[in-house]
Amino acid sequence: MDDAPDKPMLNLDRRKVVLGLGLAAASGFALARQPAPNRPRIKTEEFKSWIPKKVGQYEFETSSGLVLPPSDALSDRLYDNLITRTYQAPNGSVVMLLIAYNNRQDGVLQMHRPEICYPAGGYALSPIDPIDVALPDGEQLPSQIFTARSDTRNEVVLYWTRVEDDFPRRWIEQRLAVARANLRGIIPDGVLVRVSMLSGDLGHVEKPLEDFVRQLFLESPPNLRNILFNTPLKT
């Protein structure tokens, strides 16, 4: 019996097998190359337990009264942890602290920066100036400072953002930090830290805000200090 007519079908089946194996290998390679988070998600109660109740001379007073990012379906997904605290000193001066943290900063979910959420709340902003805050460990913390004004409230805001090991000052720098991490196979974590005082005089409250940041560095437990300031964790 002549088997010749079956050979084209046999060759076709072999080509299908080879093609299938190639596609499977490519799919496996793509899956292996997909970025993955570099930090685990932190439970809210655990994160809250790290926040100091006393920062220098300032003691925790309340969790309300802060300008928050606009609430919508997307912003609700932006943060694993959104902490707001108001601290008061014996002389009556008040500092407001906001910490917004997510263990995943990707191309869609990236933190709201204050220059976005304050205007959304009806505030007019002064020029946003870069500032380097000298930390107790000798490092300089790349930050920004501005005054937000509304009909009912003036607020001086000092803030910084960290994406993995970078401290981007601008939105485009933030996007680039995420992209660089993705190229290394990482979905980086990110945090935005904001400290502010009710005042229209930036020059008057800039130093107290910097001092508060330094005290926050000293009072934070190692896990929180690592998240806020990228200090190394001892192993």
TrEMBL record:
Domain Methanolan biosynthesis EpsI span(s) in chain numbering: 19-217
InterPro entries: EpsI_type_V_pred (IPR054654), Methanolan_biosynth_EpsI (IPR014263)
Pfam families documented for this protein: DUF3485
Name recorded for this polypeptide: EpsI family protein
Source organism per UniProt: Qipengyuania algicida
